[in-house]
Write a structure and sequence with these properties.
The protein has a 5-stranded mixed sheet, with helices on both faces. It has a 4-stranded mixed sheet with strand order 1-2-5-4. It is built from 16 helices and 12 strands. The chain has 431 residues and is an alpha/beta fold. The structure holds zinc ion. Zinc ion (ZN) binds next to loops.
């Protein structure tokens, strides 16, 4: 009696699963057959037999035409989205076709592309989760391998890049990030239009060649349509932009300029710590790095007291900090003319400061005076803070990814998280 109840219940489960499968993924020329529970070493799995619909003809995977069947290959298992924690496999013996155009080829199977062991649905499912969790986290959560997660994301990125809409790009931001240890750079190009913000393109290194590749990818017509280009003062970038995008206003943006100042302060501070130590003076500067780099409004009460304390000393670090704080006023100007006056004065003052790293920044700013003032000419026409936001996310993505030993993997991860790539409609059903 007991046994029968169990069998009955299992039968119900099978029927339920078939009903659900027909709801989420119904095929025109294939039907679901028997469903069985298989007790494996790593827990139970569900195997779903797939059969061609009666009288349906196989479709050639080369040309997508219906062809005469040739023979059948051995049974293969294709992993589908897990069901209540159980692994689910489609089990199917693919037919081969005798195609007058392509020869003897395996048939097209609507649930799988090429040689992958995962069904397309499952690959999209994993790729979707890989936007929310690290790849390792996804692999662990779904009891699958890092490689499966990687190939799923890779598939999603390559599909999405093919479908990318490249019309109406008016404003772009060019940025670089360091990845791995040492001085390995990636060049990232973002679209920063108010109507669309996303990562557009990634290139290895930050050379003239890198950015030339981007413009080649974008094409002549779309390059001519560009109106604003934001970038850093990095020479190769300046050179290529001046040559390739003459119709656009080139803007040296706030984020990149401020980060040069922060780096200079870091340098001044590090040097001064060393000097003070050598002179045997009390280590007033230890643990002050964040005090000097944070905006004053972001400091805690305790930090504020410490900063006030620090300001009593006539240290180079402190004077650099004050110069940087003063520089922030630049961004409040509305008129390029008055901003220019302010910038000139600030540079003169800084040149007299006798602080080398700061003087270096001032020299650089002087040299690019017109491009900096373009920031005021372009104001409000694009989302200027967006490059900074993307920069933070890009760093996080590459840092989080312990598995990214290759450039290719880092590239795939960045496109996946920041590219706002399109996904097929059916993918939305699972999220
Ligand atoms: Zn064919």
């Amino acid at each position: 009696m007991e046994v029968r109840t169990t069998i009955e219940r299992r039968e119900e489960n099978r029927m339920l699963l078939k009903t659900i499968l027909n709801r989420v993924q119904k095929f025109k020329s294939f039907v679901y057959g028997t469903v069985c529970w298989v007790e494996g070493a790593s827990g139970p799995t569900i195997e779903v037999e797939v059969r061609p619909r009666t009288n349906s003809q196989p479709v050639c995977s080369g040309c997508e035409f219906t062809r005469v069947g040739y023979d059948r290959l051995p049974v293969r298992r294709f992993e589908f989205i897990p069901f209540w924690g159980n692994k689910v496999f489609f089990v199917y013996a693919p037919r081969r076709v005798n195609c007058p155009r392509c020869g003897i080829l395996v048939e097209q199977m609507p649930w799988s592309s090429g040689k992958h062991r995962l069904t397309e649905r499952y690959a999209w499912y994993l790729a979707g989760w890989a936007k929310r969790l690290s790849w390792k986290g996804v692999a662990e959560a779904f009891h699958t391998s890092w490689d499966h997660v990687f190939s799923s994301v890779e598939m999603a990125v390559s599909w999405g890049k093919d479908q990318m809409d490249l019309s109406n790009i008016e404003a772009i931001g060019i940025d670089e990030i360091q990845w791995q240890r040492g001085h390995q750079y990636l060049t990232l190009v973002y679209q920063i239009d108010a109507h669309c913000k996303r990562l557009l393109w990634i290139g290895d290194k930050r050379k003239v060649k890198t950015l030339l590749k981007f413009f080649r990818w974008l094409g002549k017509e779309r390059t001519e349509a560009l109106q604003f280009i934001c970038s850093d003062m990095w020479k190769p970038y300046l050179k290529v932009i001046a040559r390739k995008a003459q119709g656009a206003i080139h803007v040296l943006d706030r984020f990149h300029i401020m980060s040069h100042l922060s780096k200079a302060i870091d340098k001044v501070r590090a040097e001064e710590v060393r000097t003070l130590k050598a002179q045997g003076r009390e280590p007033i500067l230890t643990k002050t790095r964040w005090l000097l780099l944070k905006r004053p409004e972001n400091l805690s009460n305790k930090q504020e007291t410490k900063l006030a304390d620090l300001l009593r000393y006539n240290l180079k670090s402190v004077r650099s900090y004050l110069l940087k704080e003063e520089f922030q006023f630049l961004w409040l100007y509305k008129s390029p003319y008055w901003a220019g006056q302010f910038l000139t004065k600030w540079c003169t003052k800084t040149m007299r400061s006798k602080i080398d790293p700061m003087k270096k920044v001032a020299l650089m700013l002087r040299k690019h005076h017109p491009l900096i003032l373009n920031w005021f000419r372009a104001k409000g026409q694009f989302s200027s803070g967006i490059v900074e936001g993307f920069n933070t996310k890009a760093k996080l993505t590459t840092r989080k990814a312990y598995g990214f030993r290759t450039y290719h993997a880092a590239e795939i991860a960045l496109y996946h998280t920041l590219g706002a790539l399109p996904v097929p409609k059916s993918t939305h059903e699972f999220f």
